[in-house]
Amino acid sequence: MKFDTVITGGGLAGLIAGISLQKEGRSTAIVSSGQNALHFFSGTFESMKESPARLQEILSEAGIRANYADGVRLMPMGTFRESALSLEDISLFEKPAFARKALIVNFMGYHDFFFSFIADGLQKEGIEARVRFLRLPEMEHLRQSPSEMRSVQIARIMDRIWEKVVQEIRLLLKDDDAVILPQVFGLQDISVPGRIREALPAKVVFVGTLPPSVPGLRTQMQLRRRYETLGGTFLMGDEVKSAHIHEGVVHSVVTQNLGNHYLEADSFILATGSFFSKGLISTPESVYEPIIGLDVNASDDRNTWYNPDFAGKQPYMDFGLVTDDDLHPFKDGEPIKNMYAIGSVLGNTRPELGTGAGAAIRSAFKAVDSILSKA
Amino acid sequence: MKPNEFDIIIIGGGITGAGTQRDCAMRGLRTLLIEKSDISTGATGRNHGLLHSGARYAVNDAESAEECIRENMILRRIAAHCVDETDGLFITLPEDDLAYQATFVESCRKAGIRADIIDPEEAKRLEPSVNPDLIGAVRVPDGSVDPFRLCAANMLDAKIHGGQVRLYTEVTGFIREGDTIKGVHTRNVQTGEEQDFYAPVTVNAAGIWGHKIAEMAGVNVGMFPAKGALLIFAHRINNMVINRCRKPSNADILVPGDTVCIIGTTSTRIPFEECDDVAVTPDEVNLLISEGAKLSPALMSTRILRAYAGVRPLVSADNDPTGRNISRGIVCLDHEERDGLKGFITITGGKLMTYRLMAEMATDTVCRKLGIDKKCETADTPLPGSEEKSYKEVAQTIWENPSMAQKSAASRLGTRASRLHVNDKYEDSLICECEEVSVGEINAAIERMDVTTLTDLRRRTRIGMGTCQGEFCACRAAGLLAKAHGCIERERADLNNFLTERWKGNFPIGWGDTLREAEYTQWVYKHVLGI
After folding, report:
1. Scanning A95, A134, B81, B334, which has its CA 20 to 30 A from the CA of A51?
2. b or e along B91-102 (b: 16 or more beta carbons within 10 Å of the residue's beta carbon)?
């Protein structure tokens, strides 16, 4: 099978690159093992402020609405962080004291939404906060297995019964000017968060839960649908196992499912993620890139990998592929001229600064521009 | 008697202190146990969890071996819900001297330990994970024991018998009149509150920290801290304990426990200053894996969950100031006889296995000093949770419709799980999915088992001990603790401490899936949740 570009990795970086290339008439394939960082996407592209026009275009064509306003956003543990480009689910406020009285609504028995921490965070800003719980018969069957009360399972039900939830909240509302809800709305029906906002006479704020992230899963679904609409080939549940390289040029890659049917292309993008997504593998002695054995920027002395302070910056999260300025990765000290590394496989990620999504998008655009300039 | 007056004060909330408090309380004494941290924080919670048959000591230390096998049989009766009767193998590998096997079996039999030589093929059939190259095997009555559960059950029984427990309370000095200890000055390390307690006898059962307690009382107990490092693997690859049949050495015992298995240990002398914060080094990790794989090659490819280390309170013999002649046996010192200091006893040395015997010796000494003539009954009276022979049988007969909370707690609480009060079905939902700990069990622990922090909760319920190492359950449980204690700010700090404590045991083995999980945890807490 022959494509213009084959992309390994179906997370944010791979999808943005694939969509951008398809839009320019290139034929591409994305090989996705299924696990990626959108699974725990906060909904905020943290290091980005104003959306670059080309990202805005991609997002809106995929049906994703993102916005930016100077100020802050409310985090799931009741803290505030600087605002950044965010999905429309995420509320951005001018200042932490964004309301006078807030009603926090949770589902009875749902422990992945940290209402008491949120209430505490709001009270510190002078916002009166009270917590109420909804008991809904439609959710009772989730309790038959005690581990079913999780974000995605609830979100599937909410797609059906969100109007009923709105009615219940109306009964609870007094003179509250804000309603805080867990981010479990709009998994399939993307219009739901907006419709809830319209239906309630108070400012509605959706706050994140423990993963899986409902906005993250939805974003992945929307981007993938958009990619396939543009004619891209999304190979779900497959894995690139090796590559054929001759004189510093990749000719094809071999996947688990396709076996002898190699994926050939003029250029290749590696968007395989960091350790979590297995783009990098660590052993007691070293860190390596598993598909090609690309050069990795990592210390061989394991004693230097960690910061014993959990809250501190972790050195191993800096580890990533060695590349040149055009994002060409190196193999045995030599650049691979038709391959590009993008996203968190490049390393230097800082979760507390949320560099993941922003870095993924910027590196994807850079690789795409380089590919487009060459033909 | 005033509320701050007791018959006996016990310093130390490890298994020795808890066992001593239970024994004293059962003999009718008014007891107070003081612990500067939480229960089981020292060597009690930092060992193999091996229910020694005594076989390991048979060749070199017949006395310890005999104590072990006696206590082994007693614990099977009185602490059934803490014990897993797995049996153990002592294997001989091609590089070992097979002649040692005969000496070993002979010594075991002398000590009263059943030791059956079995064919290596039979050993492989009994324990498929064993190194297939073995050339000899002996079957002995080893097993595994959950030290957290055992310690909590002892303390619970002491409380049932009227005992009082003050956790997070440190002894800051002794109240002394002439040559007699009359009581202790204490300070609550969380609130700073200072309080004095009085009793005619104080027992020093503080493990390695007992060295300093003795110094504070003005007497010297020559202790030597010996660090032992261990690794926990994420799967229970062996069903029987596997030992090397040779002179005891590093990393030669693999113990199954619940859903995991543990390899250990090493032995390194460390300075006293390091006892509060012992770290496992990469060299120790490498040694434990390479030696452990000789017992069971599957260890090489099994994910490691944690590395941890404990400090053994070894005591040098009184007549040997050099410390060369170190005993692992029980040391019970009546400081009145030894040093002319009245009202003060030190109970130390020994092992997890012999805690009950140590408690009995200490309590006998206490009773003698108080002029009380009551027999020890701890060897025949089951601990709370083990009243019936089998908690599984109990589970089937007394609970017609056990709730999920009760079912999953049965393996931890034994028959007491049937008392777990589940207000409604919401309490059935799981907080910790790895270890199946429910809301109901956590709330019960918070209410009745002196829980102030997430780490305390972990020691009583196993939350955060599974594959995810607290990634998901920590913040869920923090929500419940915050509700119970009504202080969010304290709970934020507690959550950070808990995550740091979990990370401490993860980073020494931070590669492969462990590092993936660690990276994920970083993203969840710093990016998604925003702590």
Report:
1. A95
2. bbbeebeeebbe
